[in-house]
Structure formats: structure tokens, C-alpha cells
DNA sequence: GTCGCATGTCTACAGCCGTAGTCGATGAGT
DNA sequence: ACTCATCGACTACGGCTGTAGACATGCGAC
């Protein structure tokens, strides 16, 4: 069994992630706001969004703030942290922790466009400065 | 609901992935062989491995071949395909499909060692040749 | 003051995942 | 031939995930 994380370490599922994206895009949001942003794309109903939000609150990834009788939801973890965490997880799981292997994989599978290459080159130079 | 893939498109879970790694490392293997390779690290029992193997067979990720009364298990999908698929999934989900953003993220979070940078630089040059 | 609508909570339920036990069949040794 | 160890198949079960219905409650309009 995977180790159970502490405060912010709970795994965020795919559906929950969609809700997080909405909250990262703009915060705070009410449940209705979130539904406006995701119910179209995922064909969800309000109850579904409510469930996901409360699960996220339970997991500690989202915080609520009372606003009259309703809640305003705010993410407690930042997108960059989440993204960084997930990226490292992938690199560890599939590339033995070596980011260069990931890069090689992307290159080999021709997933890199000329723009990507140029951008990466630019970043590399920047890092070397 | 996520779309249900056809022949080889079924999602492979984390535990199943560990079994796949063993099979990618050497094939074909019997269930006992697989257990030898993973039961230590994951503290699994034989029945667990058997279950995972049959689920993988059901999902079409592993093929069996009779050998007397036992089975020899062989992966039907290659590791590089799986790894490429998962990488692209991550890039799509978290980086808007732009690999350069992934790279930027890794750089920013200081997940790149000097060796990684050198290696990536080398690969870049190679691609440009 | 009453009624309805908006909102969160609780409950539900099927399917997948992690983990494992049990059982029937079958090949191997005696 | 008989027994025993193996091996796969079937069954199990609690937890998580995706999805949603029912319900209580309380603000806002009249």
C-alpha cells in the first residue's frame, strides 16, 4: 500500500484535478462557479461537483471560507507544487528518476516540435548563465 | 467516464505496472518468476501476483502461452510505448501539451542536476545535426 | 411571516484497485 | 494407482473513484 501522506499529501484523482484547475484559474469560487467552468466539458451535474469539492476539502487540498450561507472554495496547494510533484512522480516511476531520460523519450517519440526544441534550448542557455 | 480503450488501451494500474516492469525486464516469465522479482519489494503474496497477471491478461497488456500446465506470461505492449503514452498523458494533462513547459517546470523546481543538463544539451545537439 | 430556491451534507452505488483466500485440476514422485 | 505439491480460476472484501439523488436548512422575495 502506498504511504498515506500527511497534511497535503493525499492523492488527487483525475476528476478532482479538473476541479482544482478551475480553482487555480480563479479563486475563490463558489460551487456554482466551479460547475459553470467544468460541468460543460465533463458533463457533470452540480451534486458531482459538490462531492468532488468536499472530498478535496477532506483531503486538505481545498479550503472553505464561509460567505453567508455558501462557501467560497480556495485551493490550499499551488498548481506549480502539484505539477512539480506529479512530474517528479512520473520521472521516478518511469525514468528511474532521471529527467534526461524523459527528455530522450520525448525526443525519440518525436513529440518535440521545432518550437519546443528552441524553447528548451533557450531555457538551457538561461540556466547556464 | 474516461473512454474505454480498444485492444491495448486499458489503463494499467500502479500495482499492475510493477508486474509489467518485471515482464519487460525479462520475458516470458511464469507467475512464480514474477513473484520472485516483485514480491520482495512490494511484500505481495503469490495470489496477489496471480490476480494482477490475470487482470493484465484481461486488459490485453499481457499474453499467455501454455507451457505444460503452467503459463508463460509475455507483455503484448512494449515498455517504450507505455512510457511514451504516459509521458504524453502527463504533458497533455498538466502542461497543455507543451513539453517545453514540462522542461521549464523541472528546471524551475531544481529537479535537474548538472548531469541532466549536460545530457539534455547533448541530445539537443544531436537532434539538431 | 411564509415559500421557494440555493447550498452544503449525507447517502448511494457501480466499477476499479490492492490484497489475498480457497478450490479444483493436473503433473510428478513413489 | 495414490498422494502431494502446483498452478490457474474463482471468490472476497474493504477502500477509492466517478457520478448522482435526497434532504435539511436557511437567505431572500413578497
Give your account of this protein's structure:
The longest helix of chain A is centred in the last third of the chain and has 17 residues, at 79-95. With 129 residues, chain A is mainly alpha-helical. Chain A has two domains: 14-75, Arc Repressor Mutant, subunit A, CATH 1.10.10.10; 79-128, Penicillinase repressor fold. In chain A, helix 2 packs across helix 3 (46-59) and helix 4 (79-95) crosses helix 5 (99-108). Chain A contains six helices and two strands, in the order αααββααα. In chain A, strands 1-2 form a two-stranded antiparallel ribbon. In chain A, 23% of the residues are buried. Chain B binds a DNA duplex (30 and 30 nucleotides) through helix 1 and helix 3.
Quick structural summary:
Chain A is mainly alpha-helical and 129 residues long. Helix content of chain A is 62%, strand content 9%. Chain A has two domains: 14-75, Winged helix-like DNA-binding domain superfamily/Winged helix DNA-binding domain (Arc Repressor Mutant, subunit A), CATH 1.10.10.10; 79-128, Penicillinase repressor fold, CATH 1.10.4040.
CATH H level, superfamily name of the largest domain in chain A: Winged helix-like DNA-binding domain superfamily/Winged helix DNA-binding domain
Ends distance of chain A = 44 Å
Which strands sit side by side, in order, in the main sheet of chain A? Answer: 1-2
Q: Give the class of chain A from helix and strand content and strand pairing.
A: mainly alpha
Give descriptors for this structure:
two-stranded antiparallel ribbon, 129 residues, 2 domains, elongated, homodimer, Penicillinase repressor fold, Arc Repressor Mutant, subunit A, mainly alpha, disordered N terminus, 6 helices, DNA-binding
Amino acid at each position: 500500500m502506498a504511504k498515506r501522506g500527511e497534511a497535503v499529501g493525499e492523492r488527487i484523482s483525475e476528476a478532482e484535478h479538473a476541479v482544482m484547475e478551475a480553482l487555480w484559474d480563479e479563486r475563490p469560487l463558489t460551487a456554482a462557479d466551479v460547475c459553470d467552468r467544468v460541468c460543460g466539458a465533463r458533463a457533470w451535474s452540480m451534486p458531482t461537483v459538490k462531492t468532488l469539492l468536499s472530498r478535496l476539502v477532506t483531503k486538505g487540498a481545498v479550503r472553505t471560507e464561509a460567505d453567508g450561507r455558501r462557501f467560497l472554495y480556495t485551493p490550499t496547494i499551488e498548481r506549480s507544487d502539484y505539477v512539480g510533484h506529479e512530474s517528479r512522480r512520473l520521472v521516478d516511476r518511469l525514468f528511474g528518476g532521471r529527467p534526461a531520460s524523459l527528455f530522450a523519450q520525448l525526443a525519440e517519440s518525436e513529440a518535440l516540435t521545432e518550437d519546443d526544441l528552441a524553447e528548451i534550448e533557450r531555457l538551457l542557455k538561461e540556466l547556464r548563465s
